[in-house]
Design a protein that fits this description.
Helix content is 61%, strand content 9%. With 186 residues, it is mainly α. The protein has a single domain, classed as Rossmann fold (3-Layer(aba) Sandwich). It has a two-stranded parallel ribbon with strand order 1-2. The protein has a two-stranded parallel ribbon with strand order 3-4. α4 runs parallel beside α5. The relative contact order is 0.18. The model has no long low-confidence stretch (mean pLDDT 97). The chain binds BIS(adenosine)-5'-pentaphosphate and magnesium ion. BIS(adenosine)-5'-pentaphosphate binds next to α1, α2, α3, α6 and α8. BIS(adenosine)-5'-pentaphosphate (AP5) binds next to α1, α2, α3, α6 and α8.
Length: 186
């Protein structure tokens, strides 16, 4: 977990090599659906461009489908899901059903103004359609309202690990590995 631009994708991409499990980013799955022009992509595009959350029903279908793939049978890193309390509860139900309980939840924290800078840079490099400043601020607001409470959901279960996501990318990875080892998962 972490704010938009917090480094979830960057860090998960590095940790999947270490842990030999797939990196499952719901944002990437949605962007692929938009690129492919699937019914899901067509439904999700306007919501994503507005920086708002795609409906819980669509997301649950997407995540259940992805977790049923062969490569996810011995673990996975989820990036960008769950993103509100209802998704966190649905995820626990799905994971109980497939007997793959949560090892832990990792929260990567980054100051909002640093995020605006990072995503302005990425907008120039990659042109992601939700990286303009107005949409980034909307994504930050939705994160604060709807996603930040998910951290408490995991903290109450004793499953939350928090690290600072600022500084060099490799430094953040080292912080994550140290925190996760200390917590006894990963
Ligand atoms: P999603 O794709 O998940 O976007 P996001 O949460 O806004 O996060 P980003 O992917 O932009 O950032 P990141 O944390 O992965 O950081 P990154 O490593 O890229 O979701 C997009 C949209 O899809 C949502 O708005 C919503 O509409 C929909 N959606 C997705 N999941 C959903 C769900 N569960 N429910 C409902 N809707 C959903 O890094 C960012 C940039 O910073 C990069 O350029 C990177 O190179 C750079 N960077 C990384 N680390 C550092 C560092 N340490 N120092 C400097 N720069 C760094
Ligand atoms: Mg990402």
């Amino acid at each position: 977990m972490g704010p938009p631009g917090g480094g979830k994708g960057t860090q998960a991409g590095l940790l999947k090599q270490q842990w030999q499990v797939p990196h499952i980013s719901t944002g990437e799955l949605l962007r692929a659906a938009v690129r492919d022009g699937t019914p899901l992509g067509l439904k999700a595009k306007a919501t994503m461009d507005a920086g708002e959350l795609v409906s819980d029903d669509l997301m649950l279908g997407l995540i259940e489908e992805r977790l049923s793939q062969p490569d996810a049978q011995t673990g996975f890193i989820l990036d960008g899901y769950p993103r509100n309390l209802s998704q966190a509860e649905s995820l626990d139900q799905v994971l109980a059903r497939i007997q793959q309980p949560v090892s832990g939840a990792l929260l990567v924290e980054v100051d909002s103004e640093k995020i605006v800078d990072r995503l302005a840079k990425r907008a120039q490099q990659e042109g992601r359609s939700d990286d303009n400043e107005a949409t980034v601020r909307k994504r930050l607001a939705i994160y604060a309202e709807q996603t930040a409470p998910v951290a408490n959901y995991y903290a109450e279960k004793g499953q939350l690990v928090q690290v600072l996501g600022e500084g060099e990318i490799a430094e953040v990875t080292q912080r994550i590995l140290a925190a996760v080892n200390e917590a006894g998962w990963g």
